[in-house]
Amino acid sequence: MPTPQPARQMDIRVLSIGTLAAHPLWEERHPVRTGHSTTTLVQTNDAKIIVDPGLPATVLKARLNERSGLTPDQITHVFLTSFNPECRRGIELFDKAQWLISEKERESVGVPIAQSLARIAQSKEVAQQANEEFDESQQSMLQVLQRDVAELSRCIPAPDSIVEGVDLFPLPGFSLGLCGLLIAEPTRTTLLCGDAIPTVEHLEEGKVLPTCADRKLAQESFKEAIEIADSLILGRDNIVINPTRKGI
User: Fold this and answer.
1) Distance between CA atoms of residues 225 and 230, nearest Å
2) What CATH superfamily classification does 10-102+158-241 receive?
3) 62 Cβ partners below 8 Å, 6+ apart?
4) Domain-by-domain residue ranges, the chain?
5) How far from the centroid of its chain's Cα atoms is residue 14's Cα?
6) In this structure, which of 73, 89, 205, 231 has its CB flanked by the most CB atoms within 10 Å?
7) Per-residue pLDDT band at 9 (split at 50, 70, 90)
8) CB contact set of 86 (below 8 Å; sequence gap of 6+)
């Protein structure tokens, strides 16, 4: 007689609620705080997945333990909904995990980053040859770009399904390759939206961020998000019930 298999377990919890540096629907036109993404932990029998580690590593390490009792070396995967720096500030904390990002996002940001790095590196070389001081702001930018290249190089294209029940859900618009995660449970579906739907105000007013790479695409992704899921984990906010499903 075959041995019964344990039921697949799924646990989704927000580790840290994110925030926008400037919330356009609060009439904020300039940064008034440090922006960071909502960070979520998805646990199954087969994986422990951190989505968008937006806090600094030291803060995120404490928050992970507070909310789950886990340590960073127990995390198996990190998934970035986009390559926005505010979505990956603490990614180095999970150096034993596999880092994942959508293939389209990786491709769309990779070339511009490499081109910018090459331009600044060439400027530095020219300055050195002329025995001129290299601009401090450019030196800072060079370091940022070098880190970007190192992190993007380590990120590999995510498969359509990371593990059973955790599937990629493309939401292009804010960035060209932004991709959420659709999580199927027996009684509901949950969509991790990233910046496709950043806050509850954006959800309620049906608006996307003004800084979208492609506004039309972003609006289409917004509609798809609210059509597909029962619950939504917003990119800079908490988990919410899809307002179109209330009362059902």
Assistant:
1) 10
2) Ribonuclease Z/Hydroxyacylglutathione hydrolase-like (3.60.15.10)
3) none
4) 10-102+158-241, 108-151
5) 13
6) 89
7) confident
8) 18, 21, 35, 36, 37, 54
Tokens of 167: 């599937």
Residue 2 has pLDDT above 80, yes or no: no
Structure tokens at 126: 């020219």
Q: Is 73 exposed, middle or buried (CB count within 10 Å of its CB: 0-12, 13-18, 19+)?
A: exposed
The two three-digit tokens of residue 16, written as one number? 């840290």
Task: Write down the pLDDT at residue 248.
Answer: 46
* pLDDT, tens digit, 9 for 90 and up, residues 28-75: 999 999 999 999 999 998 899 999 999 999 999 999 999 999 999 999
Give per-residue pLDDT as tens, 138-186. 888 888 888 999 999 999 999 999 999 999 999 999 999 999 999 998 8
